[in-house]
Amino acid sequence: MGRYVFNRLLWMIFILIGVAILIFTILYLVPGDVSTHFLGESATIEDRAAFNHKYGLDQPYLAQLGNFLYSLFLKGDFGTSFKYNTPVIEELLVRIPRTLFLGVSCIVVNALIGIPLGMMAALHQNKWQDTLCMVLALLFVSVPNFWLALEMVDLFAIRLGWFPPFGIDKTTSWVMPIIAGSMAGVAANARQTRSSMLEVIRADFITTARAKGVDEGIVVRRHMLPNALIPVVTGLGVGPSKSIAGNVVIERIFTIPGVGTYMLSGIDNYDYPIVRSSVVILAVFSSLVMLLVDIVYAIIDPRIKAQYSGKAKGK
Amino acid sequence: MEHNNQTVKRKSQFAQVIERLLTNKGAVVGVSILLLIVIISLVGPLFCPYGYNEMILTDKFMAPCAKHLLGTDAYGRDIFTRLIYGARYSLLLGITGALAGMAVGIVLGLIDGYLGGMFDTVFMRFLDIWAAIPGQLLSIIIATALGPGFVNTIIALSIGEVPLVIRLLRGQILSVRKEDYLEAAHSINASPGRIMFKHILPNVISPVIVNTTMNIGAIITSAAALSYLGLGIKPPNPEWGAMLAAGKSYVGVYNWLVLYPGLCIAIVVLCVNLFGDGLRDAIDPKMKK
Amino acid sequence: MGNNPFLSVKDLRVEYTSDKKAIYAVNGVSFELEKGKSLGLVGETGAGKTTIAKSIMRILQCPPACIKSGEIYLDGEDLLQKSEKDMLEIRGKEIAMIFQDPMSALNPLMTVGEQIAEVVATHDKSLSKHEAEQKAIEMMEMVGIVGSRAVEFPFQFSGGMKQRIVIAIALACNPQLLLADEPTTALDVTIQAQVLRMIKDLQDKIETSMILITHDLGVVAETCDTVNIVYAGKILEKGTVEEVFDAPTHPYTRGLFDSLPKLNEKTDRLTPIPGMPLDPSIKFEGCPFAPRCERATDRCRQGEIHETHLGGTHYCSCVLCDQRGEA
Amino acid sequence: MAPVIEIRNLKKYFGVAAGTNHAVDDITMTIEKGTTMGVVGESGCGKSTLGRTIIRLLEPTAGNILLNGEDITHAKGHQLTKVREKMQIIFQDPYSSLNPRMSVEDTVSEPLVISKKYKSKAEINDAITEIFSLVGIDQRFRNAYPHEMDGGRRQRVGIARAIALNPEFVMCDEPVSALDVSVQAAVLNLLMDLQEQRKLTYMFVTHDLSVVKHISTNISVMYLGQLVETSPSDELFDMPLHPYTKALLSAIPSTDIHHKKEQILMKGEITSAINPKPGCRFAPRCPHATEACSQPQALQEVGKNHFVSCCRVKELG
């Protein structure tokens, strides 16, 4: 098991290097000169040359890329902001916990609401509970989360004054961002849980369990649920990696000073070191969540566990 | 299952899917509303009393009334008119974005399925990297690099979708590869091209189509989000997301600026999803039960 | 036959609903089984054999599968009148079932020991967890698997081994009635021989009665005392194995025997049964086999076909026997 | 009679996670024109792999395959095209063997279209009409899709596809094991009729011993990739010599209730052919195994066309 986690971590580092190269290249290909964007049309040629030289922008692509990767992965240096002339890492360290908190809260809400909704629907297939849950899920996936966020601000913050409309000063500040950020995930989880439950309900081993005379409640809890949750766990992993990106917009609407808003400010200001580093950090989050999911998956499913722990298959 | 002593008629599978689709209330409602919106967005401007960018400065921030059904914005532009024009953007972006992603995904997926071996190994590694950046985040970065504009937005939106299509297609191809009829095709000397296009593609394409349909809704939302961030369609074009962005400062004051564009997005996405769900059930009736 | 048979099924009818259409799966089945004996239910795909077994066990999910009428007496009590709560006591303890596909009959996420212990613990609440586990290990040893493998998961066992575990679950509470639904169809012939032998030995040991569902007449000949031939949810012929195998009477039974390649005689050509099985969504009248029967007359297609007593315990539902009986 | 198929020391190995699977290990066999070679064995014994290797759907690891005396082991390109037209396959599963998106007519006409032997649509059409009546599919099913037909009819479509180009050799991979007995009988009859009319040579792979006895001229018994015994059909049932053959035959449930035979129950379960030890692979389960069984076994001739691969065959009798 330990070796499996180690291998996966190694693999993750490889992926992150790839992500860094990809992001660097995309931003390198932005048409026009960075110094023009940043210093404005009025800057003199000398100013621009000085700027380019300072940040190594006058070097060829490969040298710049090598430099970027070297400082990022070997020195842990995320570069320096063009605009503020401060190390990006300092700002990131302050912001990372906020983004993580929002992301993890959304995952928890997704699971706590989505899974029971899907279960209820599956256990009452084709009855009103099923219809209700599925209509709710359909609504949740269809409503854009940033619009919902704006409407919530309108109603609950400005008109009713229940929550602060923006910022993170109070504990209640987090309520609306978390609700808006988890809508789509709740719906996805509910749908996934329902369909995998319906598959498991018809499985032969459920008939075996019933034939043992086991109480229906135990059949659901002990036999159906664990099997149905395996694909849901996978979904839980894909969901947040989506919602971390979706949360970029949520962060901006509620002006949460997280990694997402930082990245957007970098985009607005052509401050590419900020953009690059923020994307790498967000990719780290989503890779870590995926890794976590794979580990959980390996723990709950003995078939996968055996595959990784190198235990020989039965004789 | 069979009609006794009656010639079995050739019924194209497409016709069967349509038949089943028509029995699905949700899908029918979804498609009808979508068609209505398409017709309105095409014909509507002919009957609109205002231009989409016509500023009536005396009518600034008018609440919905008889003159301006859904009110006006900060420049006195009629919201209703702008929404009608905006429908074109959302629908076009959603559909072309999803189709572009699907097309590229299918081409790459088939190449991968055809070459297999080493190419597959390397390509899958590359795809892992591609997919490690969450789709919407990648769209934001690509949109930043390309700059705003209609075509650029489509590229930015579809790029995140491609790895998912490839993975889906690849999984399908792998499962179909185990089927005996492929071995049978080899044994009757079918060429690789024939096997790919006659035996594999028709049997793997349905989930991809369903997935693409389901994606249209997500892409419409992403498109609006990009415009909201100022990276997609730029004002003064009446894109719904851009309208939301313009209205966000007046939240709590002139709430119709945000309410109606958002509602439009939600309704279109809902209809697309209803259609997608119906299509999934119609293409694979087993999945429903 | 004794006055008080151990199991008696009377006029059982089961219907499924699929896409709002009714599927007539079991259409008035009656049979009896004496204590300690084994009965073979033989028929082809879709004949309703499994539905009959699941009806006795009362594990059909309604909808879609509903028991429309009938009585099932086990030791004189009608199972169909029992409450679900009473049935929980009976299932696994009085009646147990072995399923066709050992690959999917076990929960992939529980160890096999836990799965055997579960049925033990369910029916004997006085046992501690440890005692239930001990019993599970005992059961595994009984079906020929080393007890130390109780902590392993189903995927670590071969098909034949899994089926042994399913059998261990079924027999763990010494049931009075064992329903074995094609227990060896998925297994290789040498493993089938091992498993059938084991089921028979254990059946003798714990004196349980058995209904063996199969499509294989050979398996019935090796294992059962009596046999019922099922077609389209109806029993067309029944009797002891000797009676039916020595003198197959119903045209369908004969058709089955004629289509089998024989091991100990040379046949140049087999005689298949023409036509196709009945569409179960059509309610038939008369004999369900009439459309495929070469000797069918108008009489076969109308009214109720009665069982004709051919002597001993041998019965046949065919107009031809009826006439012969009268004649 | 000339042999249609000759295979010499044929081997097919697969690399798997745990090592090398010796699925087909050193098999030599001859199939005469117009005869049926039955190949029996339990799941995992390599019988299907053997058949697929012979008809060149799988690349042989070593050994030779001769079709009408011509070595086709490494046939490529045009030669392979010609070879495949002469060797066809019928599958076990009538569901997975037909492309669900192709009508029955398209499926059966595909080999004709690919072969380019027919000049016009009308010719192909006539050919299909003939094939359909030959295999007993009603013409009204021409436009049907596989899911609109029952298992027996689907299997006939599979047979129609296989014989469309008039092959010489057909490898039948458990063609009736997915069918009910009453349908199975009809398909077996059809296969035997076709053999007679078209002088077909069959290799009939199955686990069902009564079926194989009925249809085969000769029978080969396989165990974990190795050939343990091969013999004329009747002789094998009257006088099985290899301990595995004996056990296998004794395990068949018989409908003959008056002559109950003594069952030989084997110890343990079938293992696997992954990284096998040298010697007889049946030895671990064999009641008669001795030291000598761990040596490589040679096929010994014990009668006309009757070979056994067991070093103790003479002593055991």
Q: Outline the biggest β-sheet of chain C.
A: 8 strands, mixed
- Radius of gyration of chain A equals 24 Å
Helix content of chain C: 25-40%
Greatest contact between two chains: A-B, 49 and 43 residues
Tell me what the CATH architecture of the domain at 7-234 in chain C is: 3-Layer(aba) Sandwich
Please state the overall shape of chain A, judged from the principal axes of the Cα atoms.
globular
The mean pLDDT of chain A is 85
Second-tier CATH architecture of chain A: Orthogonal Bundle
User: What is the tally of helical segments of chain C?
Assistant: 10
Distance between the termini of chain A: 22 Å
Sheet-strand content of chain C, in percent, reads 15-25%
Domain tally of chain A: 1
Coarse structural class of chain C: alpha/beta
Low-confidence stretches of chain A: 311-315
Residue share in helices of chain A? over 70%
Q: Could you tell me the CATH topology label of chain A.
A: MetI-like fold
Question: What does this 3D model show about the protein?
Answer:
The complex is a heterotetramer of chains A (315), B (289), C (327) and D (317). Chain B has 289 residues and is mostly helical. Chain B has a single domain, classed as MetI-like fold (Orthogonal Bundle). Helix content of chain B is 72%, strand content 0%. Chain C has a domain of 228 residues: Rossmann fold, CATH 3.40.50.300. In chain C, β4 and β5 form a beta hairpin. Helix content of chain C is 31%, strand content 23%. In chain C, the strands form 2 sheets. Chain C has an 8-stranded mixed beta sheet with strand order 6-7-8-3-9-10-12-11, sandwiched between helices. A 4-stranded antiparallel beta sheet of chain C has the order 2-1-4-5, with helices on one face. The model of chain C has no long low-confidence stretch (mean pLDDT 86). The relative contact order of chain C is 0.14. In chain C, α4 packs across α5. Chain D contains 10 helices and 12 strands. Chain D is globular and about 65 Å long. Chain D has a domain of 88 residues. Chain D starts with a strand and ends with a helix. Chains A and B meet through α1, α6, α7, α10 and α11 of A and α4, α5, α9 and α11 of B.
Primary descriptors:
heterotetramer; C: Rossmann fold; 8-stranded mixed beta sheet; 4-stranded antiparallel beta sheet; D: 317 residues; globular
Summarize the structure.
The complex is a heterotetramer of chains A (315), B (289), C (327) and D (317). Chain A has helices at 2-28, 34-39, 45-54, 61-74, 88-123, 128-142, 145-159, 175-201, 204-211, 216-253, 259-268, 272-300, 302-309.
Any chance you could write out the topology, listing elements then pairs?
The complex is a heterotetramer of chains A (315), B (289), C (327) and D (317).
Chain A (H helix, E strand, L loop, with lengths): L1 H27 L5 H6 L5 H10 L6 H14 L13 H36 L4 H15 L2 H15 L15 H27 L2 H8 L4 H38 L5 H10 L3 H29 L1 H8 L6
Chain B lengths: L12 H10 L2 H23 L31 H37 L1 H16 L2 H12 L3 H10 L2 H16 L2 H8 L4 H37 L11 H8 L8 H28 L1 H4 L1
Helix pairs in contact in B: 1-11, 2-3, 2-11, 3-6, 3-7, 3-9, 3-11, 5-6, 6-9, 7-9, 9-10, 9-11, 10-11
Chain D lengths: L2 E14 L2 E14 L3 E5 L6 H8 L7 E6 L2 E2 L5 H10 E4 L13 H12 L5 H15 L15 H13 L5 E5 L7 H18 L2 E6 L2 H7 L2 E6 L2 E7 H6 L4 H9 L48 E4 L2 E3 L4 H4 L1
Parallel strand pairs in D: 3-8, 3-9, 6-7, 7-8
Antiparallel strand pairs in D: 1-2, 1-4, 4-5, 9-10, 10-12, 11-12
